[in-house]
Amino acid sequence: MRYRFGYGNHACPGRFYAIRKIKLVLAKLIMDYDFKWAQPRPVHDRPEDFAIEAQLVAAPDAEILIRSRNLSN
């Protein structure tokens, strides 16, 4: 993954903190929620990715269902 935080003397001083926070939020989402495609599809058949300025972006028309997990156990 590439993040745009600048480089050299102009690099963002909070870039390491920001990346750490992104990872924590992502881990929390994965632990607390279930994700699945809105339309059932085979594992090998998924929407195509496309690139914007050399960054891969998920297909904007792909629909994903997100459900909170039962964490009371």
From TrEMBL:
This is Unnamed protein product. Keywords: Iron, Metal-binding, Monooxygenase, Oxidoreductase. The keyword Zinc does not apply. Its cofactor is heme. Belongs to the cytochrome P450 family. The keyword Amino-acid biosynthesis does not apply. It comes from Aspergillus oryzae. GO terms for biological process: secondary metabolic process. Coiled coil: none annotated. It comes from the Eukaryota. One of its GO terms (molecular function) is monooxygenase activity.
